[in-house]
Every structure is written in C-alpha cells, then in structure tokens.
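JOB MANIFEST
job_type = single_chain_structure
chain_count = 1
residues = 289
[input]
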Amino acid sequence: MRVILLSQPLIHGDETTVQVLKEPGKSAQSKSYMWTYRSAQDCDQPVVLFEYQPGREQAHPQLFLAGYEGMLMSDGYSAWRTVKGVTHYGCAAHARRKFDEAFKAQKKPDGRAKQGLEFFKALYEVERLARGDLPEGETRIDYTYRLRQKHSVPLLEAFKKWLDEQADKVLPQSLIGKAISYTRNQWVYMSRYVEDARAPIDNNVMEREVRPFATSRKSWLFNDTVAGAKASATIYSLVLTCRACNVEPFEYLCEVLTELPQRAAGADVSDLLPFNIGERLARRKPTAD
C-alpha cells in the first residue's frame, strides 16, 4: 500500500502519540509515535497508513517519503517541512482553531479573534461552493480553480494585510497574538492551495483518520512491546483504508484471511487490497427483489 500511496499526487501527513511499555532504551512512561499518512480524499485508490516510530524526529517522515515529489499537506510541525522534493501545504483548520480558542476566551463577542474567524468562514464558503453542482461543460478541477482565483485569492490578500496590521498591536503571548503569529508563520504553506485545484485547504481528512486511534487509545492505554505497536499500526492501516474505500472491515478481513492461505509464498496479492476487493465483495451481497 505504501508504493501505491507514494504514486499518488497528494499525501496528507500527521502524527500522534502511543505508549510502549517495553521499548529498548526508553522508560515505560515515555512517548512513542504513530506517523500517519493518507491519500487525497477523492482519489480512486484511497490509502491510510500508520507507521510506528520510537520518536518524533524529522528523519521518520524523510525516510518514509524519500523520493516522493508530489504535494504534502501537514500541520505546522517543523519535521514535515524538512521533507525534500515535495510541495508543502499548510492546514488552514489548525490556524482557524487558534483564532477560535482566542474567541472563546474573550469576554466580548467581537474583536480581532472574531474578525479572523470571519476570514476563515469566507474561505471555507468558497470550498463549499466548489464541492457543489458543476456548471455545464466544466470539470471539477477547472471549477474549483476558477472559484478560488475569483474569490479566495482576494480574500487571502485581504486576510494577510489584516494579519500584518494586527501583529504589532497584540501581546505576543496572548491567545490572539499566538493565533496571528502562527498564521503569519504558516502563510506561505497555508495560502498555496489556491495555485492547484487538487490541493485541499486543510488536513481534516487526515485528522479524521487519526481520531479512531486517539479515541480507542483511551481504552487500551498502551502497547506492551514494539512488535505489538507495529502490529497495531498494520491493523489500523487496513481497517481505516477499508473505511476510506467504503469496504466493511470485517467482511474484508474474512475474505483476505480465507484467500491468503491459498496463495503461494511470494504471490501477487494486490487484488486483495481494499480498493481492489470492494467490487468483488459488493457482488456477493444479496440484492432486493
């Protein structure tokens, strides 16, 4: 699945913590990480991959994405920006979240935080329109690009001008100061999506894939060994790829575990990947009379 993921024009990336009790050279209380990768939301062969690593160093995404030359969407964590050869994109949802935190902390319902949120609201409205009904004779790519150039580009220009004007008027360590600073620091990456209609405005599709892991982690708490953490990464990768492909995970696993013992060692099993097996499983379901 990694080979297929790296062949696609866009990859989303993120990372989340996991605790491993018996890890060489580390205490049981220390943090390890699941590095997560996903293909574009609307691609023909959706792939979700979890990779266990003992740390959060930049070497991990560098190695996983070595040789990749497509688009990479991530949050503001600096390790992602060290990946060479890709076109980096930043997540608008992360920046918006900081303005939302500042807004909720205010006693008055107006002010700079609300102004910032209004800019994000307008930008996301353009994205909503781009997902709507297509004008006759226009492709989704062309329609999205046209809307972004007409509406998002001037919005971003006005937003950037406003951010620059406000930067010296706020306390750097205040919530609104941090929101403005973060957005300005990420601006090159966060605003780049208007240049390519295939690029998303945010990393939300990746965060939705991480959420089941983060939620279930509250129940199982930790992995006992490194081998267990790697096995967990494999299971989450398969199940979440199934979900991305609209394939029922239990049906998929039953089919694969029945079919694999019948294959010779080293045989091609690409037909058993979730995005290839979906039609076969669908044909077996009984149809209504």
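[summary]
DSSP finds twelve helices and seven strands in the chain.
The mean pLDDT is 94.
exit_status = 0
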